Structure formats: structure tokens, C-alpha cells
Fold:
Amino acid sequence: MQTFIENMPKAELHLHIEGTFEPELMFEIAQRNGIELPFADVEALRKAYDFRRLQDFLDIYYQGMNVLREEQDYYDLTWAYITKIHSENVLHTEIFFDPQGHTARDVPFETAVNGIHRALVDGKEKLGISFGLIMCILRHLDADDAMATLEQGFLHKDKIIGLGLDSSELGHPPEKFTDVFVRAKAEGFVIVAHAGEEGPPEYVYQALDLLKVDRIDHGNRALEDDALTQRIADEGMALTVCPLSNLKLCVVEDLAAHPIKEMLHAGLKATINSDDPAYFGGYMNANFLQLAEAVDLSKADVITLARNGFESTFLPDADKQVLLDKLDAYAAAHGVTNA
Ligand SMILES: Nc1ncnc2[nH]cnc12
Ligand SMILES: [Zn+2]
Structure:
């Protein structure tokens, strides 16, 4: 199963670029920017990656991104991620960034977006990895700040394809940002939102009905509501599931208890993603492999999950089909025909 997963073509649809910040690179960038990290070394920092809930992680995640100051920092961060996924046969990635995590520290919006985008373009040109870039709103901040941030995003429509919603879910329901997402959709942005990671099914309903999402990020808790589950299945709405994130943030008690099979049996278009791999212990291959071993996925299940990923990208249909054909060829070459 390991080499089958490693060599399989994959798409990643739920990835926070700031969550790919490996401690070694964080220390290197901190040093060149003359910033002191509150950890003695890489080991001490890694030891702090012990979370009981989403907020424990977010506190460290915002602290980590604090060392990003110059456009080259954003480039280096993104390029490290691109070379990593290249080694894992990820052919397409749609990544998030959190502009407010940078502008709140007086780093200009364009410094972040230009550095990230330049690395993504290099990844496409040099390594053939296609991409989409989605700006996310920090839901613990207010709606006015979100709208002002979105307006800045509109100045970079040549680089940004959509709007997402992330950060502390509980107490910050999607309805807080209805106007922001209606405006983003009217301007042609695709729409995604974290919903049902820690928050209740009601937040997933709001993401669908008020924000008009094109995909749901996480969505685990939708399973608590049969009518909601049926609706998501009927609409063919993708869920960007993140197994190792779910484990590290205690959304599931252990990976063997992960509901991925229930999701597939319910007809949900579940995809596999790494979320914040530097913090959660693994990139795409580790997420696929550890999940497959924990819940005993078949190769056909694994192909189904990878196919869901390609089908749920925001690529034009023709580009999507090229990637799906590669996956089909891979499945056929490995005798997997029933997916
Ligand atoms: N898993 C997650 N949930 C909410 N906000 C995030 N920001 C980065 N990772 C996140
Ligand atoms: Zn996420």
C-alpha cells in the first residue's frame, strides 16, 4: 500500500501555506530577520506541537508566521512546500493563505501574496504542478476587517481565485460573514469555508445556505445530522478531509475511529488533505497511508479518494480531465478497476 500511495497522482485541496512552516526554516528566517523565537531550538519548538483542541494549535501557528516579513520569506516558505509535494506526486494544489495574519503585523498584503504566488508560478513552470490560491478570512476577527481584506484581495484577482473562512470556529459562525462572502461570489471568487471541524452541524448549514460554498473544509460534524449528510451527498459537495489534523486536534480520538468510511458509504465526496502538515506530522502521503492502515482502506477506496480530489478542483473541465485520465491510467495499471 505504501508505494501504491506514494506513486499515485494526487491533488491537494486543503492546505494552509503558513501551516507548512517547518521549524528548521522558521529558525532560519527568524535569524535573517533578527527575530527571537520563544523556543531554544528546533526540538523545543517541535515539542510544543501537542494540542488538545484547535485553539491550542492556532496560538502556535500565529506565533510561527510572525517571523515572515519579506517577500522572499513567503517565496521560500511556498517553494519548500512545492518541492515537498513534488516528491509526493501531487500534481495539483489549491492552497490557502491568511492575509490578516500578515497585515495585522504591518506586512503589506502584496508582500505576502506576491511571494507566495511567485513560488507557485515557478512550481508550475519548473515542476508542472498546477495551482489555485485562495485567501482566507480569520473568523475570530470582525466582519468589517474581513470586508476590507477582501477588497485588498480584489486588487490581486490575477493571483487569487477564491475566498475561504478559517481560524477559531466555535463562537464564530459563518453567518457573521454573510455579506463578505456574498460580495466575494458576486466578484467571481470561488467560495470555501471551514465548517463542522469543531463547530456543530448548524455551521455547515450556514456555510451552504448563507456563504454558498463550493466546497466544505473538514465537515466532519455534518455526519451528526442525517438530513444534512444526505443533502451534501445529493449536491455532490466535496468535503476536504484532513485525517492527521483531525487526530492532532482531537477531532477524532484515534485514527481508527476516523469516519472516512462512513463518509464514503454515505455517498459524500470526501477528499484527503494535509491542512497544516508541519504541525500535524505529515504531508499528503502520510495522510493517505496512516488513514488507510488505521481504517483498512482498499486500493479501490484510495483511488476513489484521489479521484474525488481531482474531480473537486476548481480547474477548468479540460484540465481536470487530463489529471483524471492520469489517475485512471494509474489505477488500471495496478489492476484497480472498481473504483
Ligand atoms: N485546521 C484549521 N482550522 C481552522 N483554522 C485553521 N487555520 C489553519 N489551520 C486551520
Ligand atoms: Zn484548515
Notes: The pocket of zinc ion (ligand 2) is lined by residues 14, 16, 166, 194, 217, 275 (CB under 6 Å).
